[in-house]
């Protein structure tokens, strides 16, 4: 049975992305600060089909596990627009459901990635993603507002946070506007690293 998950990096002061996001300034220019831990890992580059990376550590094992359990993705229009201009073909290797008001035909890429543009809300996107995932998990990819919508709707089962040892000072916070009474949180796993701290949470609806 599919779980609804998200897997996100944040700064130590809680920011998911920086200021002034745009297709020319993806994540507000802070991707390297928040996600730099991945770039040394062979598992990250394997996913892109590139022979690169200097390490194959517990961080890489975690990347492979997350990739292996994900059967479909959901993302917001803003994240899609930032990535569309630069993502390589078949990056996601699964169906991706984009929340948007824009009417658009599916974007079928070479390989196994197809982007579907959903105009009738998060529940509709989730229903389609679960069918597509075929028993694997549905990952809410982002951005922060999309993750917040799913959290506040009580639809998330589990999440994994990667806390980078950096202060950003400003930007977009991952957990702004969250209904604090929706869930009880349980720490399932803490994975230390020289570069990042990984914490897996289980969410139990109250």
Automatic annotation (TrEMBL):
Gene3D superfamilies in alphabetical order: Dihydrofolate Reductase, subunit A
Biological process, per Gene Ontology: riboflavin biosynthetic process
InterPro entries from the UniProt entry: DHFR-like_dom_sf (IPR024072), RibDG_C (IPR002734), Riboflavin_Biosynth_HTPR (IPR050765)
An example Gene Ontology molecular-function term: 5-amino-6-(5-phosphoribosylamino)uracil reductase activity
Record-annotated Bacterial bifunctional deaminase-reductase C-terminal domain positions: 3-188
One family name in Pfam for this protein: RibD_C
PANTHER family, sorted: BIFUNCTIONAL DEAMINASE-REDUCTASE DOMAIN PROTEIN, DIHYDROFOLATE REDUCTASE FAMILY PROTEIN (AFU_ORTHOLOGUE AFUA_8G06820)
Name listed for the protein in its UniProt record: Dihydrofolate reductase
Organism ancestry: Bacteria, Pseudomonadati, Bacteroidota, Flavobacteriia, Flavobacteriales
């Amino acid at each position: 049975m599919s779980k609804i998950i998200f897997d996100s990096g944040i700064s130590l002061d809680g920011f998911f992305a920086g200021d002034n996001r745009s297709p020319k300034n993806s994540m507000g220019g802070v991707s390297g600060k928040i996600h730099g831990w991945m770039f040394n890992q062979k598992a990250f580059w394997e996913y892109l089909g590139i022979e690169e990376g200097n390490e194959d550590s517990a961080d890489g094992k975690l990347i492979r596990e997350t990739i292996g359990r994900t059967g479909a993705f959901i993302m917001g229009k803003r994240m899609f627009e930032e990535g569309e201009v630069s993502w390589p073909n078949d990056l996601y290797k699964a169906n991706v459901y984009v929340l948007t008001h824009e009417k658009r035909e599916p974007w079928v890429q070479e390989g196994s990635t197809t982007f579907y543009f959903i105009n009738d809300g998060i529940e509709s996107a989730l229903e389609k993603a679960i069918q597509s995932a075929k028993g694997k998990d549905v990952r809410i990819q982002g951005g922060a507002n999309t993750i917040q919508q799913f959290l506040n709707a009580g639809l998330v089962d589990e999440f994994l946070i990667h806390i980078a040892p950096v202060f950003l000072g400003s930007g977009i916070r991952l957990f702004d506007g969250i209904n604090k009474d929706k869930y009880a949180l349980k720490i399932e796993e803490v994975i230390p690293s020289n570069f990042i701290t990984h914490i897996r949470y289980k969410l139990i609806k109250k």
